[in-house]
From TrEMBL:
PROSITE patterns: COA_TRANSF_1 (PS01273). SMART domains: CoA_trans (SM00882). This is Succinyl-CoA--3-ketoacid-CoA transferase. Belongs to the 3-oxoacid CoA-transferase subunit A family. Gene3D superfamilies: Glutaconate Coenzyme A-transferase. Keywords: Transferase. InterPro entries: 3-oxoacid_CoA-transf_A (IPR012792), CoA_trans_fam_I (IPR004165), CoA_transf_BS (IPR004163), NagB/RpiA_transferase-like (IPR037171). Pfam families: CoA_trans (PF01144). One of its GO terms (molecular function) is CoA-transferase activity. Signal peptide: none annotated. It comes from Azospirillum thermophilum.
Amino acid sequence: MKKVYEDATSALAGLLKDGMTVMAGGFGLCGIPENLIAAIRESGVKDLTVISNNCGVDGWGLGILLENKQIRKMVSSYVGENKLFAQMFLSGELELEFNPQGTLAERIRAGGAGIPAFFTKTGVGTLVAEGKETREFDGETYVMERGLVADLSIVKAWKGDTEGNLIYRKTARNFNPMMATAGRITVAEVEVLVPAGELDPDQIHTPGIYVKRIVQGKDHQKRIEQRTTRKRA
């Protein structure tokens, strides 16, 4: 089975359709599959439900899909860096399903593990729990959360091989490994692509069985959302 594609556009060919659900790895601008996101923008696909920790920033990351009016709904835990996101949500142009960050992570992990739902104490007694089933365990109240799966997961790794095995680097790992398991089809973008057999099996974070297509990205821009420095003494 050929997994390696020449570029992001060909890697997504035949996979995109209006109204689909897409998981996108990354945390802020760290570890985002920027080439794949750009290819989705160029495709013009619309009415997307996007599951991602946040929606990038104005003009970069998933923010470019917002600008192009391609996202109908976001399932996220943080949206504070994107002014357009706030404007679209407040005006009713964008739906938002807000999640505590740990709950979002576990919903994705559960979806990838085939677990349809689980109970957590996080959010009990708040807006997060409205309309959801609650249950008592050992005298404590828990709220039920559903696992998440997507039609397509796009993830970013530091290094991958031609069989789709992936290694992430430091904090750029973030949501990527769990999203790789929770997509019906997973497409990976990597910085370094090597022949099969060159990766140390003990270092692999995502086994290639989860990855259907892989592409070596180009011109990665490792932007910083907020650069904070202190004055020299």
